[in-house]
Amino acid sequence: MTESTTGTATRLDKLGVIVAAIALVGLALQPFALFRANRIVSADSVMLWAAMPLWQAIALIVVMVAAILIILLKTPVNLRLAVSIAAIAILAVMVGRSGYFLTPEDNAYARVSPGAGFWLMLFAFSIAMADAIVRKALSPAMRVFFLIVAAVAIGVLLWSGAWSDLSILKEYHNRASAFWREGRTHVELAFGSLAAACVAGIPIGILCFRVKKVRATILNSLNVLQTIPSIALFGLLIAPLAWVGRNVPGAAALGISGIGFAPAIVALFAYSLLPVVSNTVAGLDSVPRDAREAARGMGMTSRQLLFQVELPLAFPVILTGIRIVLVQNIGLAVIAGLIGGGGYGTFVFQGIAQTATDLVLLGALPVVGMAFAAAIILDALVEISQTKGKKGKRA
């Protein structure tokens, strides 16, 4: 290898090479937009240079190439972060412009969707942005601040009407009331099952920690439950819950039946137990022996030891389990749409049945956003609790 080749290689960022390759494929080889004469027919691919006025296309290509070069090379972290954010913002605006440019006037049936090229470039610059944030080692509060800014920016983009000509917004306008109703149901499924799992799982975890004889039996049973495929578990609950709804007085009035909300939340609760129980046990196991001995030396009872020493020190590990459950349940709640449980899965499965890709995205994208936001917020809370836990141990 020559000296010039070695020098070039050392100037390249390793992750940047991968990000740049993905972005270039999206820019040059994949369609930037998809055009349909109506919502269910096959789409025609439209490359970037045909998806908007030529001067706008040239400007976008120049900007994207410059951004790719900055990400490709070993550049300052602040510059990489700024360029990634700017590239994402420009892509978001220009895909809306392509919807306006490609939609024929006075045609309510035509649909324009972001193409694979847009999604690949968005994915590539999102990776670059996340990498820059990690390299900057931002505090938990700053990470949450970035999340809030991103949410506000998306809200402004939607409110401004920049995406009004894209088909996903047209699907939303046709189902606005249903969208928010199913959103509330999705939140109830995810957070309701999490709350029930915490109420039941933390005491079970304490029992497993205190009574070693039952630990293996309980954890193995929950492991077996976790291995059942989600669709199968939803199906298995239909018959017993239908029997309960028919034969138990007052059950039907509470909404318990073979399909709908009840089997969905029961299944999500069942999947939530293992992470909560196992992380409670792991957290209590991680409490230093010195802390317990000091508490006993102070005359604490077992109850005081549990609530004043063990659970506070185990809290970061328990919270990690709660984070796993919440992100998992936000995704799994989509399956509830198959059995009439509601949530954003309703749109996903309607879209699949109608071969309407944008209806699928109307259900899928909010789920991805909710899971992403939940992960960032709970990661920040875990880090904060770990910092406080270390201070408490030193004290």
CATH architecture of the largest domain: Orthogonal Bundle
> Kindly, what is the distance between the CA atoms of the first and last residues, rounded to a whole number of angstroms?
56 Å
**Tally of alpha and pi helices:** 16
Order of strands across the main sheet: 2-1-3
The helix fraction, in percent, is over 70%
Shape descriptor reads flat
Give the total of beta strands. 3
Low-confidence regions:
none
Strand content: under 5%
Largest β-sheet summary:
3 strands, antiparallel
The CATH H-level superfamily of the largest domain is MetI-like
Secondary structure class reads mainly alpha
Residue-averaged pLDDT: 87
Radius of gyration: 26 Å
- CATH class annotation of the largest domain: Mainly Alpha
